[in-house]
Write a structure and sequence with these properties.
Layout: E1 4-7, E2 10-13, E3 16-17, H1 18-25, E4 29-33, H2 34-48, E5 54-59, H3 66-74, E6 78-81, H4 84-92, E7 100-102, H5 109-118, E8 122-125, H6 128-141, E9 145-152, E10 174-175, H7 179-187, E11 192-198, H8 209-227, E12 234-236, H9 254-265, E13 271-274, H10 278-281, E14 285-295, E15 302-305, H11 314-318, E16 324-326, E17 333-339, E18 348-356, E19 363-366, E20 388-392, E21 395-400, H12 405-410
Parallel strand pairs: 4-20, 5-6, 5-13, 6-7, 7-8, 8-9, 9-10, 9-11, 11-12, 12-13, 15-17
Antiparallel strand pairs: 1-2, 2-3, 4-14, 14-15, 14-19, 16-19, 17-18, 20-21
This protein binds ligand LLP.
Length: 419
């Protein structure tokens, strides 16, 4: 459920009519509904309340906007970060350092140092090498780093290949059959406090069984590590729960996920940690765009909108589907291709799609754009950096400015040797 509904024939974000925002801020623009964000945060958190001890670290990469992080911090969420940039955002949003988890396959020395200095709650180590480096830095700083070892369970998540992370051929984590040895080695390393395992097998999972298979497999590893005399007090089960992108699709609900986790982890006796991203933010946002013109084609007409692959990269990168809807539909339908203005054919949002009839100047939205939307934007083709707006009831605010091409140009330099 979201809060983007029609009222008197006009699509609204909560109580704000989208044409008002288009007029005030221009298009393209991401629009977030605070009510949806809060609701999703609560539904997920409340579903997990069936588990004895839980920590939720929002996957900042899915939507790092400061206002979004503020809302989630107020709901008791910590953060899963993958760069010092995300770390600073989580801190700026007021997330307590001890609720911050640092994931990522290539944390630099500078990043590890900063995270130790601010006292984050957990490092998810991706290798023995990383653990040894972190131990050295921790000793030099006179600190102890709480760590989980990320395991690659070699389970197929059944999602798009580019967002699968838990197969042996993926770069993430340590191989399953070496995990117990690496854990033992790192547990003996001064400067580190090994407290558990982490896994994340992929994103936009449509089914729970790959997650269940991975958790079950890793449960066996917990027993083996404990049998070897090491402590396991925290288990980080990652993110990955998918959301429907097409109207009518049915996806596992947070309650189904929580029930599965409760069943699989019943005898683990640990604090369970979660890193949800898309399930919290996906449906909290739309990308509002204006039709530049409708161009006749050899087949279906081309609806050329002012949003492009630089603003919403998912269709170009993963062939992802985003529902498209007119802001003031007239009740008729057309079949069309929807494309942006960028000069390559991958700048295509949809082909031969049955959509609301739109014409030059009309406003429309791509739905379910709150996760991996604005955060993946670029300025390709010297386009502006897309802005973001948050709505709260009948109030709204720009929460990220549009960065004009002129501002980006002003940051470039022509070196002396060229003049
Ligand atoms: N934890 C880790 C270690 C991750 O790598 C990710 C996502 C998450 C948690 C959050 O996963 P989620 O709950 O959002 O599925 N750009 C792609 C998605 C990339 C996901 C990367 N990792 C897309 O637009 O579909």
């Amino acid at each position: 459920m979201d809060h983007f509904d029609y009222s008197d024939g006009v699509l609204h974000a909560e109580a704000v009519a989208l044409p008002r925002l288009a007029e005030a801020v221009g298009t393209p623009v991401y629009v977030y509904a605070r009510a949806t964000l809060t609701r999703h945060a609560r539904v997920f958190r409340d579903a997990l309340a069936v588990l004895p001890s839980v920590q939720i670290a929002f996957a900042v990469k899915s939507n790092p906007n400061l206002a979004v992080l503020k809302v989630l911090a107020a709901e008791g969420y910590g953060a899963d970060v993958v760069s010092v940039g995300e770390l600073e955002r989580a801190l700026a949003a007021g997330m307590p350092p001890e609720r911050i988890v640092f994931s990522g396959v290539g944390k630099t020395q500078a990043e590890l140092t900063r995270a130790l200095e601010v006292g984050i709650g957990q490092f998810n180590l991706e290798s023995a090498e990383e653990g040894l480096e972190l131990a050295e830095i921790a000793r030099a700083l006179g600190r102890t780093a709480s760590c989980a070892l990320r395991v690659n369970p070699d389970v197929d998540a059944g999602t798009h290949g580019k967002i699968s992370t838990g197969k042996a051929e993926n770069k993430f984590g340590v191989p399953f059959d070496r995990a117990a040895d690496i854990y033992a080695r790192l547990a003996g390393e001064p400067g580190l406090a090994m407290r558990g395992l982490a896994l994340h097998i992929g994103s936009q999972l449509a089914r729970l069984d790959p997650l269940e298979a991975a958790f079950t497999k890793v449960g066996g590893l917990v027993r083996a590590i404990r049998a070897a005399g090491h402590a396991v007090t925290h288990m980080d089960l990652g993110g990955g729960v998918g959301v429907p992108y097409k109207a009518g699709e049915v996806f596992p609900q947070p309650a189904d996920y929580a029930a599965m986790v409760a069943r699989v982890t019943a005898d683990w006796g640990v604090t369970l940690m979660f890193e949800p991203g898309r399930v919290i933010t996906g449906n909290t946002g739309v990308l509002l765009t204006r039709v530049i013109r409708v161009k006749d084609g050899a087949g279906h007409p081309w609806v050329v909108v002012d949003a492009a692959m630089n603003d919403l990269a998912r269709p170009a990168m993963y062939d992802a589907w985003h529902d498209f809807a007119a802001v003031t539909p007239d009740g008729t339908r057309m079949t069309a291709n929807i494309v942006g203005p960028i000069c390559e054919s991958s700048d295509t949002f949809a082909m031969a799609r049955d959509i609301d009839t739109v014409a030059r100047g009309d406003l429309a939205v791509f739905r379910t754009a709150g996760a991996y939307g604005a955060t993946m934007a670029s300025t390709y083709n010297s386009r502006a950096m897309v802005p973001e707006v948050m709505v709260d009831g009948d109030r709204w605010a720009v929460v990220a400015d549009r960065i004009a091409p002129a501002t980006i140009l002003a940051a470039e330099r022509v070196p002396d040797f060229l003049v």
